[in-house]
Structure formats: C-alpha cells, structure tokens
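Worked example 3. Consider a protein that binds zinc ion.
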Amino acid sequence: MSLGIRGKFVVGFDGVEHRIIRDGVVVVDGKRIKYVGKGYEGNVDRWIDAPTGLVIPGLINTHIHAATAPKDKGFIDDTGARHFYMSSLGENLTALGQAMRSSDYEVFAKFSLAECLKSGNTTILEISMVPNLGPEKAVKTIEQLGIRATESPIVADGVWDRTQVADLRTKWIGLESGLKKLDEAERFAKTYTGACGGRLIPAIYGDTVDKCSADLQKAIRIKANELKLPVTIHAGQWVVEFNNMIRMYGRTPIEFLKDTGLLGPDLIVGHGWAITGHPMINYPPVDGGDLTILAKSGATVSHDPLVFVKRGNKMHSHTAYLKAGVNVSIGTDTVPQDLLNEMRMASYTSKLADWDCHSGASRDIFNSATLGGAKGLGRNDLGRLAPGALADLAIVDMETFNGVPYRDPIKNLINSSQRSDVRWVIVDGKVVVDDGKLTTIDERKLLRDVQKAGEEIWARIPEHYYLKQTADEVSPLAFKLWDEK
Ligand SMILES: [Zn+2]
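Given these inputs, the predicted complex is written out as structure tokens:
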C-alpha cells in the first residue's frame, strides 16, 4: 500500500541533519519512505492531508518497562526512601512488584505500548515484557499494537539482597545461572529475528551493572559481537549502585563496564546519570572521568529524566554529555509513556543544571529522541524521514491551544505540544493511530482494564509486601479522605 502525507511542516533528513520543509510531502511505499520534499505528482492509495500538521520521524524511546510501569502512577509520586537517596528501587517499587499477577502484566503492556504510539513514539527498547509475559505473549502484544520494539530476556547472575534497613547488596547466585539466561537470550534472538514483519528487534539485555558479574559481562560482550545484537544494561541509575560498585570493585559503574569490555558503540547505558562529578555522587572525576570514558567508547546513554526528577535527582546536563561527545538518546522508563513530555523534561533539567537558557536546546533534544536513539540501536533507517528509511512517522497538529502561534515548530513541539496533539502515527507503513485514535485496540476497554488491574494490585499489597503495609501507608494520599479521623 502507498501513502502520501501533506503537512504544513515536514522534518526531512538531508543525509547529515534534520531540515524543516514548509508545505512538505512524504510518500510511503510499503514499509519504506519513497519520497520527502516539496510537491509530488504521482498517485498513492491514500492521502493524509494535514495543512496545520508537523510531520516528524517516529520518536525512539530507548528505555521503557511497559508491562510493569502503569502500577507506578500516583504511587511513586512524592515518595522515595531517604536512606536509599530518595530512590524507589529498594522499597515501594518492591511493594508494588510483589502484588502483581500475570494478567496485570498483559494489560499493562498493552496500555504502555498504546501510550507510546499515541505520543508519536514508534520504536521502543522495552525491558519488561519477555520476562513477565513470556516470549510468545510479548511478541504477540507487539504484533497486535503495531509498534516497533527491541526485546530480550534479562540476563543476570546476581540479585539485590536487602540485608539491613538501609543496606542493599548484591547476592551472587552463580555464573551458570547467568549463562543460562544468556542462552535464553540467544534462543529468543534466533527464534524471533524477523518477527512482526521485522518490527521485532532482538537484543541482549544485561539487568544492572551490579547484578552482572565481570565474567558474565564478558560473556555478554562475546555473544553480542557474535550475533551482532544491540545491548543494554542499567548503570549509573542510583547512588546505592554507585557506592556498591566502589565497595565491591573500587571502580565506578562506567569504569567497570569499560574494564569488562561491555562498553562499546552497541551498548545503551540505561540512565547513566550517577557518574563521577555528579553533585549527588560526590566522587571525583579523573582524566575527564566517566563522561570521557563514555564518549571514547561510542556508547549511548538513555536519558530518562522524569522518573528521577520525581525524586529530586537528575542527570547533570544533557548538553554537558553532548559537549563531552557522548551520544544521548531519550527514554520514558515509567509512566507516563509520553516521550514529548520526557523531551521537555530533558530540556528543562539541562537548563536548570547549567543555569543557562542555551542548554538543553530544542534542536539537541529532538536529535536525541530521533537520530540519537537510532545510533544507539545501530540503525540508519530509523529516526529520520528520508527515501529508503523505514516508514515510521507521526503527525502533530499545530493548530491547537498548545501549537499556535507557530513559527518554529520544533521549539513549539519541545516546549508546548502535548501528546493529545498527535493525530496520525504510522509504523512500517501502516496507520496505527488514525485521527487521534488507535486502530489496533479498543481504547475504552483498555482504560477500564488498566483501572481494574491498578485497584486490585493496590489492594493486594499488604498480603504480599514483607513490611505488611497498606498501599496508603507505603504511598499516602495527597489529601485525607473526608471522613478520615
Ligand atoms: Zn529500567
């Protein structure tokens, strides 16, 4: 099927950088883009006319936990463990996780993927679906929703063990168990290469830098090279992890990744904010520190600001990473799976970090959410509108309360557009959001299912959580109830 899109603005890629084409046209033939420019004489099967629309490449999200994230909404906000430097990882996320059932994962995964698409996000590096739904259901969900997704089982040979109130350490469970998981990842990659019409991108997911031993990281590196797969691992994601790495090895998380050889151009570092020189880490950089190591390696950092901002943490300047030569991409991690919102947050946190309005510039943020993510995944056919690239794109209406008046559509997109302004989303040449509505799933039923799952999880918390607290004790409501004493 062929498709033509006429937009007020088209963000075309000229082979080097994005350019704005006023009154532009994009023509899609099958799965790929055939033409980008001004005017088109040929015929297509369907025209989408967007005379007030901004046509952008489908955004790339390099870190999302789709099957587990919706439970966090209204629950991790305004909370965090002071003894874990405000992180939720060791405490209230544990309470929620233990109260989930398999049917919850399924409905949450669908919801998260739907959220991504409705915010113009067409490719995701998704971390939770294979472990929680099983490979078959995970792939089926991606097939159904129509998104492009990277998937893998999670590989680790350690677990977090909370030994004391404020002490969480790595308990090693043996290299063999990690290697078994790595075999599973290889089987998954071999079984599902080409699945979902090529929209499924196999990868290898190391869990966290402090749950994968040096030997396991070396094994992951060998396997990734052999199978030519992108790799991701959480590293530099909280102060506790940074301190544990120093205590265990005398190396920072980034130094350790370099030592094991896992750090390389095919590695996406999940979060990567807790590094040398960061004010919360207070660990001195040597010879340029972690930023220089990251830059020299060619690795990509997945910058996922909102989840950290909520606990008073932040990456210390998107612009500083770029200036050091680090490839930065953007991810949502948890709710809301709204990359437009995340881009805005990345821009503002960078400005706040540098006390500088030029920091976190719209141009750099847009590049990170498109070309930066594509580079991280080793793809030159994503994150850009150019002939030959995959036909993943979104149309954002500018004639809305968020959009007008528009002169520079990219600055407006980063600073004021909302996901409700996203009218059409196309993945692999197929329209998956049509005039604001998902074509692949009943939206109303999905919302009801998610609400029901949330209510059931919160009710189950006291029976499963080892501290035996209720949902309202773990995460107090903002206001007291009317009839509460
Ligand atoms: Zn994560």
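Take a moment to read the result before moving on. The CA atoms of residues 58 and 393 lie 4 Å apart. The chain has two domains: 2-57+387-438, 59-376.
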